Amino acid sequence: MPYTDPLSLAGRLADVAGTHSLGSFRTRLQVDLKADASPVTLADRAAEAAMRALINEEAPTHGILGEEHGRERIDAAHVWVLDPIDGTKSFITGSPLWGTLIALVHQGSVDLGLIDMPVLGERWIGRPGRGSHCNGQPVHTSGCTALAQARVLTTSPDAFAPDEWAAYDALSRRAAMRRFGGDCYGYAQLAGGHVDLVAECQLQPYDYMALVGVVEGAGGVITDWQGRALSIHSNGRVLAAATAALHREALSWLATVPDIAA
Predict the structure, then answer these.
(1) pTM higher than 0.85, yes or no?
(2) pLDDT of residue 260
């Protein structure tokens, strides 16, 4: 079946990745450490290799940026940004809250984002300005506008430098509730209206580009900690909020942390 539209190919890429990852989930895995000391499994590598092969077959002029196998035709007008298993630590410890992230970037801007949660059977797809869906049903952010009423989420305190944590801690302690864990699923929860604010650090483009499509399609706002639009050159600090008003209030806490180069 030839490439016809980005939604079709994105769905097929998620299917291919899930075939490889689900077959290895909760099995005895060989875990290697990459140069940055983050864990990786054969499932990560095999899933991304299969996704890349499909793109090269169906859309050979498109570029690819993947976590496990690097850059290919990165200057193309269309670039697929892939993370076969976002949340590898969750994957190797048997938690179901890992997912596959797929973004299509057109001339630097996100055209679509997909968060696939194979164990949960949920597929979240969003396109900025054109809506977001979970398993075909429209989703929307909560509409929360004030930090005091917000449910705030981050994956782990371990991902923050001391000054970043101090800012996040001050922000989140003023919220109605704060929770930890979730990896990419936290942004799906935000898009679905279940949490209101997510802030994280040390992310790579393949960790956050897909989130832009889903969050913005659902009516939310997602930027770096200085309020700048996210790109493949961003510095890894991400702030996502249900509304522009909540985003502005959160930025007032996080933007006090000294900026860092991408």
Answers:
(1) yes
(2) 81
